[in-house]
Structure formats: C-alpha cells, structure tokens
Design brief:
Its EC number is 4.1.1.94. By secondary structure, this protein is of the alpha/beta class. It has eleven helices and ten strands. Bound molecules: ligand LZKTLF4L.
Length: about 250
C-alpha cells in the first residue's frame, strides 16, 4: 500500500497525503523519501503553484516519527534519522512555492514539526496539536523548535514547547500557529477556498514572494541553530527517560 498519495490539481495545487492511517499517519523512512521527492518536484515544476500536506482519514494529521521503526535506533542511527528528516523539513521550509499543512486531525511530535515547516496551517476544528516531545524525554528532533521560535512570538513558542501538551486547534489559532480553523465537513473544499486568492497569481509571483520570505533562513547562522537542535535531540534520544516513555506508549497501545 502506498504510504503517501501525491495528486496534482489542474489549478496548480499538489496534494501530498500521508497514507498510514493504521499508525495515525506516522512518518517512516518511506514517507520521508516520498516527501523529499515531492518537494524537489514542486520546486522544479513550473506547473506547481502550491503544495498542501495532509493526512488520510479524520483521526490524525500525523503522529510524528514511526516509533515502531525508530524506537530501536541507537545514538548514531537516531542522529542520522533525525538529520534526514531535518534536511527534508528545511527544504520544505525554504521551498520557493507557498505551502499549507491541512490538519485533518491530531498532530503529535514530529507531525507538529512537519506542519510548522509549512507557511500556512489550516486545522479542522477540535484537532489536537501536541509538541509532546518533552514528555518523551526528548526535544523536537526535526528542527521544529527552531522553526517555531522563528514563526511565533518568543513567549508563545517557548510556552508551547515547555508545556509539551496537546493544545486545541482553537487555542493554537489564538497563538497564531493555526491560521484558519475549518468546520471539516468538506476539508479539501474549505482549504481550496482559502487558497483561491493565492492561486490567481502567476507561479512566478508566488515563487518570487516565497524566495523573499525565506531568504532570512538561507544562511549558515540559521542552519547551525536548526541542526544544533537536532544534535541535542539525538543526545537525549538514548536517555533512560526516552526509552521508558516509548515502552509505556507501546504498553498502552
Ligand atoms: C522521531 C522524532 C520525532 C520528533 O519529535 O522529532 C517524533 O515525532 S517522536 C514521536 C512522537 N509521537 C508520539 O509520541 C505519538 C504517539 N502516538 C499517540 O500519542 C497516539 O497514537 C495518537 C494521539 C497519535 C492517536 O491516539 P489514538 O488513541 O487515536 O490511537 P492509538 O494510540 O490507539 O494508535 C493507533 C495505532 O497507531 C499506532 N501509532 C500511533 N502513533 C504512532 C507512532 N508515532 N509510531 C508508531 N505507531 C503509532 C499505535 O501504536 C496503534 O497501533 P496498534 O497496532 O493499533 O496498537
């Protein structure tokens, strides 16, 4: 079964849907590779105006890294996995086309980092957003904290990271992380309505503004901060606290 579905709309929108509902759309290496390929295609293809990332089903947008795959990774392998996805999210952050996370349900851990790498976040009402890494004895490991601290006011971003709780889409709208809370009766249509004003511009205009908007992140100072976060997470990955947190998750499941 395809782990991700990529669809091209006639109006220039590419829809990337994580398709692992049995694992609440958790991200494994196959999803990473498909996402990397789609981002590279979106960058090169002048017929692509925007990229929307979403998840299959109405329960979860994305539950972050696939713990059944990643729980056994030791130090170096964990660091490589984190860096792999970190590079992909950096390319998403700086993609010269506008991007949207269409949050169709719960977003947890790396799922929140994936959404944060996007320009806009539209969430189905009642969705829960959880930068829960702190409760797992780690920090964000895919650049999520660095991006959050760039995109939200300092206090809001730090509050979200330190409390490591699941927060409603409505509250995250107040924080300015969610840009639209949608009824969700027909999420794609509701999303398309929000994209319409952007899609009336040419791809050259959309590209030019996105390049201007992301210029500030294309420097070694930002990249150093971004990948230092990942190195810190890799150090915590092997901690007893993290191991216990994963064990208790699977005991519950
Ligand atoms: C890799 C680093 C990265 C980072 O932070 O940078 C990370 O993302 S670390 C991982 C952080 N993610 C989590 O801790 C999420 C764990 N999952 C949950 O909290 C819940 O599953 C939730 C809230 C997403 C959904 O809860 P719900 O009650 O609706 O479903 P279940 O918990 O019963 O799960 C159903 C089914 O899916 C499997 N599952 C869910 N999440 C993951 C995951 N991240 N990796 C692997 N598998 C996952 C769960 O085990 C259940 O499987 P089953 O075989 O049916 O028991």
């Amino acid at each position: 079964m395809e782990v991700a579905i990529v669809e091209h709309d006639s109006d220039g929108v590419v829809w990337f849907t994580i398709h692992r509902p049995e694992k609440r759309n958790a991200i494994d290496f196959e999803v990473m590779d498909k996402l990397e390929e789609t981002i590279a295609m979106a960058e090169k293809n002048d017929n692509v105006k925007m990229l929307v990332i979403t998840g299959t089903g109405d329960e979860a947008f994305c539950s972050g890294g696939d713990l059944s795959n990643f729980q056994h990774l030791q130090a170096e392998a964990a660091k490589q996995m984190l860096e792999k996805m970190g590079k992909i999210l950096y390319s998403l952050l700086t993609l010269p086309k506008p991007t949207v996370a269409l949050i169709n349900g719960t977003a947890i851990g790396g799922g929140c980092e994936l959404a944060t790498a996007c320009d806009f976040r539209y969430a189905k009402g009642g969705s829960k957003i959880g930068f829960v890494q702190g409760k797992l004895g780690i920090t964000t490991g895919w650049g999520g904290a660095t991006m959050l601290l760039e995109k939200l006011p300092y206090t809001q971003a730090l509050d979200i990271l330190l409390r490591a709780e699941r927060i409603s889409a409505e509250k995250m709208r107040e924080y300015g992380w969610v840009h639209a809370v949608l009824p969700g009766d027909n999420l794609r249509e509701e999303c398309r309505n929000l994209l319409a004003p952007y899609l009336s511009q040419s791809v050259s205009v959309l590209r030019a503004y996105k390049v201007a908007a992301t210029e500030k992140w294309k420097n070694s100072e930002f990249q150093t901060r971004f990948f230092a976060e990942i190195a810190r997470c890799a150090k915590l990955w092997g901690s007893e606290e993290h191991k216990r947190a994963i064990e208790s998750f699977f005991k519950k499941s």
